[in-house]
Amino acid sequence: MRRDEIPHQPQVAPRPRKWAVLAVMCASLFLVGIDLTVLHVALPTLAEELMPGASALLWIVDVYSLTVAALLVTCGTLGDRFGRKRMVLAGFAVFGTASALAAVSGTTAQLIGARVLLGVGAAMIMASTVAIIRWVFTDGRERMVAIGVWTAAHSAGAAVGPILGGALVERWWWGAVFLINVPIVGVALLAGAWLIPESRDPAPRRWNAADAVISIAGLGLAVYAVKQAGEHPSPMAAITGAAGLALLAAFVRRQRRSANPLLDVSLFADRRFTAATVCVLACFGCYTALLFFLTQSFQLAGGLGPFQAGLALTPLAVANALGAAAAPWPARRWGGRVTVVCALGAFGG
Length: 349
Hints:
By secondary structure, the protein is an all-alpha fold. It has 2 domains: 14-207 and 267-348, Growth Hormone, Chain: A (Up-down Bundle), CATH 1.20.1250.20; 208-261. It has helices at residues 18-37, 43-50, 54-82, 84-103, 108-136, 140-171, 176-179, 181-195, 209-231, 235-257, 271-301, 306-311, 314-326, 328-334, 336-348. The longest helix is centred in the middle third of the chain and has 32 residues, at 140-171.
């Protein structure tokens, strides 16, 4: 991501069927959101069958989002260079394959590996969908609405995940929470191949493999250290965490010195950009954590079944989706600052 990409306007006239393209983008992000949380209600059943340790159980849940975060920038860069449609369709294929592998996993290691592959597919999808939306919707107001709906799709997927997961676990087995993705991805793949227009960055950035490896290794080591410290605090966990932080610091230093950075860290000099990033990280992190703990509390402490636990989150799912879809309206009426401050106040209250 570069500073000069923020005000970028598409150079191609808007394509027909742009709302159909948005529907495909939203469907894909809805699936990505579902897989972020669908496993939550299945964890008690899964733990009884696979018997993972406490740390392994956390890796089953978190390795998906960690992989997405680690690969998002890299996949975005590659999509700009080789084609965003190509990247999204490849992401669909990887996501569907990984879902099938996760469904038939017989060991903890196999499931963690499948979840990593799911994260790879999700990163490929997410990295290019917003660029495709910006390319298709040339009108600023329409683009704002489209991005609001696109965001709502992800939020709705994350909130619907526990409900869908609960229904599938009670009716079949825990692997069904992944297997349900396969036919949906197949339809999205066919629709995307027909509807999504191809687009590329006319002046793509050079992809630096070394920077990508450093960022992924640094993030992975830091997260691994936090998880190990939570389960078994040890000097090795501290050393691993220090190594991860050192790699992340080296990554930032390399980006500041590079003429073609993988991530333009000078963007964070803009207070609005930094504030928006911090707000998104804080709210989304708290939101997904809330979904996780509520589903566990409802089942383990409240005695609810998987489907009942997921259903108890319906008000939260509806409110989240409506809020994301309606966000452009108060932003236009009262401005972004007032809207964000009020939203943060409501979220914290």
